[in-house]
Amino acid sequence: MRIPFVFVARSCKAVHRLQQSPFFSPISALSRHQRISVLRQTSTHPCKDDRSYYITTPIFYVNASPHLGHLYSAVIADCFHRYKLLQGFDSKFATGTDEHGLKIQQAADTAGKDPLTFCTDVSERFKHLFSRCNVSYTDYIRTTEQRHREAVEHFWSVLWNKGFIYKGSYEGWYSTQDESFLTPSQVGDALDSSGKEIKVDWMKEENYMFRLSAFRPQLLDWLRGNPQAIQPERFYQAVLQWLQEDLPDLSVSRQRSRLQWGIPVPGDAEQTIYVWLDALVNYLTVAGYPDKHKQWWNVAHHIVGKDILKFHAIYWPSFLLGAGLPLPQTIHVHSHWTVGGKKMSKSLGNVVDPLERSQMFTTDGMRYFLLRQGVPDSDCDYTDDKAIKLLNAELADSLGGLLNRCTAPALNPAQVYPSFCPQSFPNQIGGRAVVEDYHMLDAVKHLSALVEQHYETMHVYKALEAISACVRQTNGFVHRHAPWKLDRRDSKDRRWLDTIIHISLECLRIYGTLLQPVVPEISNKLLSRLGVQPGERSWADVNFLPRYQGMDCPFEGRALGSDSGVLFSRLERQNVDQQKPKKTKKAAKVK
Ligand code: ME8
């Protein structure tokens, strides 16, 4: 089956003629069977390397400094990346900054800086935040880089040559804040997702249009054939719903006289490429487009906030289909952090500074809070209080307390991973273990599979909830048997005491391994304290309590690591109060 666009247009005029040409047959005119066949050619992955994985964040606008919401997207992607590495994947993780467009041009003007200097300054702030928060990206992209310009020019030319771009005129409302064209009903809503009035300008221009309307049937086929393509489900349903509505062609350029800060349209210096087309191509640029993208592009997954779902789930797949490229494997969508019920956003002035907070809570504390509290399906309101309570309860008291108790010299004078005694804890009731202990072993044994399932679907909070529940069970196990009351001089008691500590350390080893994608520093500290070497921390090493199955345990008898420092220090409310940010004027005005 050949794609019907065999006509190669060499100029705008040629494309214009193409619209009237009897050869022009939009994809929507094909039968469903033919469309699915075209889709298979473009969206399946014949050379998919199933040990490769490519994860991206949105690239962030540089009109203002990063806030907690940006860090949230980056930390989710970092968690995926680290998790895939632990599973033995070759993982690529891209983030970066979106530097073109009217909004940036105006912000640079206001700052009295030339646009590139302005972009470089703010882009560096994003980089700095990410490095402070252990966001271990492999690729950082700026849309002002030459490699990106070449990729965009190539991409544009492919769409042009295939007849998907034509010269037309656009008349309608444009929001510079969102760099988006609005439908009349959106203008009527008057408020954007952060509850702020939408400032719109009427725009009437000669420019280039993308034949978006032609792709609706293909988009529907793609989504119906791939119900996991957009997650969580409610966002998948929202996209299907949008596709029931009118899908007009999209203006993909602006007159150069109005927008200079962008990539000129190839062959037409009077027009600048629309910032969203420019920005979306960043994912391909990093993958090595146009020559070397196959390895990564076939395994691409995007993380996006719900505010930019339409751009990623409708425009982007349509551009890709037009260019004959595979579609992303998954678009993982997350909801927003709010403050006092309003979306945290630069324009509302209610942002929480992630650098300041990661100093207060530590980097891992910040990461843990974001991923434990953030729910992809629904918005989450930020308060310092919530963060402090959660971190004290789960990291300092529960996890830290367990490690402390089980490695304390009073209970573990030899400072080793002690031996497991099968007679004290036999496979069937009869030793000194009680029924709750068997339930605990069962829960920890199944924990890695459960956590894996939750990590895969970006429900990191559920993974952390499950780990936290197991940590509580292990603490319950230790309390129940109160090893500090056992007498080391009695051989039976000593074997039982060692068994309690062995099991508890095994549990901690599993928690430390599974937590690595979320809290890499804490996990490292914990695993090092247990004497687990860097080469013994992958997903394949999980293998909980082999002695219970009658197998050898490589850790038994091994010396513990020497760093007995506190895993996570309790946070004091006072310190946080002192550093509370002052309300900005703008934030105070918000209803
Ligand atoms: O939209 N809560 O950039 P942007 C959670 N450049 N996440 C939030 C958030 C909040 N309150 N606020 C922002 C752009 N985010 C375009 C993207 S991609 C080809 C181009 C996160 O700086 C979330 O991921 O406005 C959201 O989608 C993104 O930052 C928007 O960042």
UniProtKB/TrEMBL annotation:
GO cellular component terms, semicolon-separated: mitochondrial matrix
Catalysed reactions listed for this entry: tRNA(Met) + L-methionine + ATP = L-methionyl-tRNA(Met) + AMP + diphosphate
Protein's UniProt keywords contain NAD: no
Principal location listed in the UniProt entry: mitochondrion
Subcellular location: Mitochondrion matrix
EC number: 6.1.1.10
Domain of life according to the entry: Eukaryota
Pfam families listed in its UniProt record: Anticodon_3, tRNA-synt_1g
Span of domain Methionyl/Leucyl tRNA synthetase: 53-406
InterPro entries associated with the record: Anticodon_Met, Met-tRNA_synth_2, Methionyl/Leucyl_tRNA_Synth, MetRS_core, Rossmann-like_a/b/a_fold, tRNAsynth_Ia_anticodon-bd
PANTHER family: METHIONINE--TRNA LIGASE, MITOCHONDRIAL (PTHR43326:SF1), METHIONYL-TRNA SYNTHETASE (PTHR43326)
Family, per entry: Belongs to the class-I aminoacyl-tRNA synthetase family.
Protein's name according to its UniProt entry: Methionine--tRNA ligase, mitochondrial
Organism: Larimichthys crocea
